Structure formats: C-alpha cells, structure tokens
Amino acid sequence: MSALQFSQLGWYTRRASRMSPAEMAWRGRDKALQAVWSGRQVSRGQTAIDVSVLPGDLRFAAVLPGKAAACVPQAARAGVLASADRLMQGEWEMLSVVRTDLVQPDWFRDPVTGKRAPSDSYAFRINHRSEEATGNIKQVWELSRLQHLTLLATAWFVSHDESYARRVADHLDSWWRENPFLSGVHWTNGIEIGIRLISLTWIRRLLADWPGAPGLFEHNELAIRQIWWHQKYLATFRSRGSSANNHVIAEAAGQLVASCAFPWFPASDLWRKTSARLLERELLRNTFPSGVGRELASDYQCFIAELGMLAAVEASAAGCSLSARAWQRLCATIDSGAALLDERLRPPRQGDGDDGRGLLLDMPAANRWPSMLALGEALFGRLDWWPRTQPDAGSTIISAMLAEAVKVAGRPAERPWHFEDAGTTLLRTRGNDDPEIWCRCDGGPHGFLKIAAHAHADALSVEVRYGGVDILADPGTYCYHGQRAWRSYFRSTVAHNTVEVDGQNQSSEGGPFLWLRHANATVIDVQDIGDAVEWSAEHDGYLVLHPAAWHRRCVRLDRASRSIDIADEISGGSHAVRMAYHLGPDVTAELDGTRATLRWARDQACGAARLELPNSLRWSLHRGETDPILGWYSEGFGHRSPAFTLLGHGRTEPGEPLSTRLEFLGVSSAVVRAGPCPRLCAQ
Fold this sequence. Notes:
Layout: H1 3-16, H2 21-36, H3 74-88, E1 92-94, E2 97-99, H4 131-134, H5 137-143, H6 147-159, H7 162-178, H8 190-206, H9 213-216, H10 221-236, H11 246-261, H12 268-286, H13 298-317, H14 324-340, H15 369-380, H16 393-399, E3 418-419, E4 424-428, E5 437-442, E6 462-466, E7 469-472, H17 484-490, E8 499-501, E9 508-511, E10 514-517, E11 521-528, E12 532-539, E13 550-558, E14 563-571, E15 575-582, E16 587-592, E17 595-602, E18 605-612, E19 618-623, E20 625-626, E21 629-630, E22 632-633, E23 641-642, E24 644-652, E25 658-668
Antiparallel strand pairs: 1-2, 3-4, 4-5, 5-6, 6-7, 8-15, 9-10, 11-12, 12-13, 13-14, 14-25, 15-24, 16-17, 17-18, 18-25, 19-24, 20-21, 22-23
C-alpha cells in the first residue's frame, strides 16, 4: 500500500467514525447505486432520455413582469453592463484568480495548477479531493456553476444587446455537449448540480424575450436531457447525515427551483413536493431560531439565506408557497445578519467562507450582505434599526416574482446584540458614537453536525473593528483543497485571537473538513450597563489535557473611555500557553516589551491604539512567515496577504489571569499619505 493510499484509508476510517449506523447504511446504499449506475453513464453524442414521452408543447411559464427591467437602478445597470463587457472579452475573476480564457472556456482546466480534471471518466470513480487527479477542484467547479452566464443574461435583460444572449447560448451549448450525464468531474458533487439548476432557470427567465430562447431550451433535446439529468441526480443522491449542511440546502433549493420552473417531466410534481419538504426541514435544522447559521460561519449564513429565498420565491410564483414557518426562519436569517454587520455593512469573519453565491445578477462584490439586505427589504420589509442599503439588480428582479411582501410576525423591535442560541455576542458602541467600536465574542458550539466541516478552532476568540477597520482580525479561510498546511493553519487555534494551551488546538482536526473532537463554549454572563458592556464565557476544549484545563475569558467594552479589556484565566494546574492577537491588513504595529502601538490609515483618516499585553508572557511580532506559518490575513477565498501578529509565550498558574487592554486613541481626518500614518493621530 502506498503512502497516499494509507493516508486515504486513514481519512476514510476517521470519517466513518463520525457517522451513525443509519448514515452508514444510507451511504452503503448510495455506493451500491453508484456502482449500478455506471451503466447509465452517457458519452458525448448519446441520448439517455426518450423526449417523445414528454408533452409536445413545452413552455417556460415562470416569466418576469414586463416592467422588471425598467425598475433596475441605473447604477446597478451600469455595473452589470461593465462586468458583462469584461466577460465578453474573456476576462473574469473567480476565487481571486483572473482568467482571460473565457471567450471559449475549457470547462475542465484548473487555472491555478494548469491541470485538467477528468472529462470522460465515470463521475463516481473520480476522487475530486485529490489535487493530483483534478487540480484545484474549487476553481474547476466554480466556472461550471454558470454564474458568469446569469450575469450575461442579466446584461441582455437590461439592454437587449444580442451579443450577450448569443454568448450565453454558445457557452450553454458547449457545456451541455461536453458534460453528458455522469461523465466527468462536474457530476461528482450535488451542491454544484443544485446551483447549476438555479443558474439554468434564471438564464431562461432573463432571456424570455430573446427570440432564440425557446430554441435554446424547450425546443432543444440536449437542453431537455440536461435539465432532466440534473434533477434525476438530485432526486437519487443527496447529502445526508453528518454532511447535511449547506450542501443539502443547495441541493434542495436547486431541485425545487427547477421542478417549479421546468415542470416538464412525469416526476416533476413529485420532485417539487419532495424538495420543498426537504428544504423546509433542512432550513430549520441548519439555522438557530435566532436566524444565525448553525455552522457558525458567517459566509455560509448568507449563502443559505440566499438559496432559501430564491427557492421560496420560485415556489410562491408557481403557486406552491413554502410554509409560514419556513418564511419566518428565512426572515430571521436576514434580521440576524443585519444585526451582526458593522458600520460598513461587513459581517463577522467567523468560520469558513468560500465566496459562494446562489445566483449572480449583479456586478460581483466581495461582500454580499448589502445585496441580501436589499432583497430582504423587498421581500419582508425593512426594520427601523436595519442599516441602509440600496436596491440592486438582484433584489429588484428577484422580488418582482412576488406580488407583495411577505408579512412575518415577531421580528425584533430593536437591534439584537446577544444571540444566546448561537453563543454569538456583539459588544459595540452606540449608534451616535463615531467611529464605531465593534467587538464580536465567540461563546458558542464548535460547529454543526458531527464533522463540523466549516468550523474553526476559535472558541472564546474576539474580533475587533474600529470604524469598520479590522484591528484584532479573524484571519479568514484562504483555501480548502490541495494545501493541507495552509488549510490547517487558517482554522487552527493559534490563527485566532484566543489562547492555545500545551501546544494543542482546542478541537482535534481529522481532515480538511473533519473535526474529531469539538470544543464547546458556554456564555456565563452578558451585561449592558450603559457606559460599558460585558461578556464572559468558558470552553471545555482542554479537558483532555493532563492535568485538565478550563479556559475562561471576560471581555469588557468601556464606551466612555473607548477601550476594551480582556481577562483570560487557565485553570487546572500549570500549563504552557500561546496567546495570539492578529491584526488586520491595514494595521501596522510597533512592539516594545509588553506594549504595542497600532496605527492604520483608511479613507482619508488615520487612527491609532495602544495594546497593553499580559506581562507574564514573552511577546514577539510576526508577519508573513512560512516556517512555521504565522502572520497572514485572507481577504477572500484563494487570496492571502501578510499581516502583523503579536504572539505571547509562557506558562500560567491557577488564579493568575492574563490581562490585555486595547485603548483607542481616536482618528484624524488629515489627508493620508502613502503607507501608514507617519505620526500618531491622537494621544
């Protein structure tokens, strides 16, 4: 047995240990079906569905109101057309990689490694987790979500420029011909198939008035086969058990959207009812009653909210609305998201994030929450405490599918700051204080389900922003596949603003998307006493040590002095500790013993702060290091840049807290020169 095979066997053993007997039985059933279905693999040029059994007059009835295009704001229209024109030249950025080959794309080429993923092999025999076999699979899959084509279709919708529609038709025809059923890497993962169905639905909808649309879709046997294949796959193979996280939401949403929009097949009615039940059940399972996502990954909360709203709107337009309970939970995901944003409308950077979206109708943006709030406002109505957003193409066009806003009772009258069920707490200055101090405290579960696939080992970590600038930063995600050391670092304990004990992660890693042991935190107390707001919590991740240890942390934001105090206590004997404070990419640091001076510049203003560090630890400053990895910040998936990290080493004794004080010294509106502020702006 080779080293690679031994490693894979070890992973499968660890993965199986997180499954229930029922899940193992289901997975055994899936493996048996996959073996049987090898005979259903379709090669290029073959036909696998008898289209003669379909109704003779297929129609796409789920069209937009005639005035929807005219309602798209001018700024959004201009952004769509600018992005579309760039695409027409073959240039597009995906997952931090700029591609210039999209006039006639290779659907299987990874632009990062240059490898070409399998295109003819039976899908279920392809190991998409192996970079050696497929290249960077996220890069390969991303293009085949066909979201660049929904953007081009939107450009046609608002301009009626024939060139956009023709490019969409050329790419769809190419994808359909090169990806017959179960051939190649694009049939290996249900989430990709679900998102692709949403794209196909909206491409057809946006091109409804284009004369070539019927010939591209309902009068095209290849298109009919592809739409049927996609739905047949999702009806048979779906994420289950310990994998039923955001993937199953995407699968159910894609199936529901497509079965409503393309009700052409004998099984369409069954698919619609089954996927609606599945979506409703999994929306409730994947989110807390507060609306916060149970994966405790802010990016994925936005993702499932978007998928859920797309499916709910589609079902309502088809006359088969989801239940009031499902609509209420979708509304709660938007309300909680609105409460968590900072003054620049940026969400927390908690847990994994891969920049995924359910549908692209606007110029791509790194932060999708403003667009989600605009859509939420159109669907549910805006609450008084919500931050202001502007409608865009997506919110305008999608909401046009509904006749009126959905009324949801019991929405919060004031902005929530403590989400007890999720263990997420925001300490922040009041709305009339400028700039805003925003501090997220992590005191909840490790993640969702037994594998907690998108969790980080970040219990009791804090994330601090000043006027929307990352000061104490969550470093982000950076990568999923192919770079194991980087994947492990970005989700490790030492990569977060918390305490590592005896050289161990709080939770035990079993693979890139697998945690074997989970550290769970419990909030002890939260208080808002006017001039100050306080939070305290503890976690159990170090009970496995000898001697066992508890980590307790208290955080106090003093609004009057504009300072934050952090007190950490490690109980249970003497332990070696490392405490990390990661700074945002805009922040520079000068370390003098146990005091760090922080400076930053942004938007014609500069700021400064003093960070008083625990004096019982030895402190050092790091930036952009690789041996070991330390001092990095990932702004988006696939992108990393050097950033300063303050790292303290030492030992703790019971009853001796580690005290940190972060004091903000104000901002100056002086014109910023290149580089960091040359002087401390305020003392």
